[in-house]
Amino acid sequence: MANIRIMTIEDYDSVYELWIHTPGMGLNATDDSKEGIYKYLKRNPTTCFVAEEDGKIVGVILSGHDGRRGYIYHTAVLPHYRHQGIAKQLVDYAMDALDREGIKKAALVVFEKNQTGNGFWEHMGFTVRDDLLYRNKNIHALERIDT
After folding, report:
1. In the chain, which residues have pLDDT < 50?
2. Dihedral sign from CA coordinates of 45, 141, 111, 131
3. Could you tell me if 101 and 65 are in contact, meaning their C-beta atoms sit under 8 angstroms apart?
4. Can you give the pTM of this predicted structure?
5. Does residue 87 contact residue 81 with C-beta atoms inside 8 Å?
6. Are 82 and 123 in contact (CB under 8 A)?
7. Is the Cβ–Cβ distance between 35 and 28 less than 8 Å?
8. 3-state DSSP assignment of residue 71
9. Residues 48 and 7 sit within 8 Å (Cβ to Cβ)
10. 109 near 16, Cβ under 8 Å?
11. Are 130 and 112 contacting, i.e. CB atoms less than 8 angstroms apart?
């Protein structure tokens, strides 16, 4: 089993490499920059985790909340380490951390074309909401990075 621990900003380079090489991820140059992730970790210091094996980061999950609802972002495991329960461990750690902070429900977004991700989240018990439309608006232009 992988060692799961709190993510720190010192993990950023390894985590970003994992993300950029994970098909189906949607990143952007602002929110997912080192500065953007630093701000996220500072706001959510106990809810983001990495999985390590032999000192190498092999998985990651970002989770946080707004005081009412939890959110999960950018969950990934290196292909060679998949199907070993690492992603489930990461989700369990994140959900437990959110629960300790009084959060009772978590949401996430997965690209429709990401079959691997959608299959995983369905297996983890996350359901699709057909009654909602997801909307967003950029305050500033973002450079999108699709993997």
Report:
1. none
2. positive
3. yes
4. 0.93
5. no
6. no
7. no
8. strand
9. yes
10. no
11. no
The Cα-based distances of 135 to 7, 28, 111, 132, 138 in angstroms read 29, 17, 14, 9, 10
End-to-end CA distance of the chain: 27
| Residue 4 vs residues 34, 47, 60, 110: alpha-carbon distances, Å | 21, 12, 9, 23
Of 140, 68, 75, whose CA–CA distance to 109 is shortest? 75
- Please state, in angstroms and rounded to a whole number, the distance separating the CA atoms of residues 113 and 61: 20
Q: What is the pLDDT of residue 81?
A: 96
Torsion sign, CA atoms 127, 62, 35, 102: positive
Count of CB atoms situated within 10 Å of the CB of 51? 28
How many Å apart are CA 115 and CA 106, to the nearest integer?
20
Residue 142 pLDDT: 85
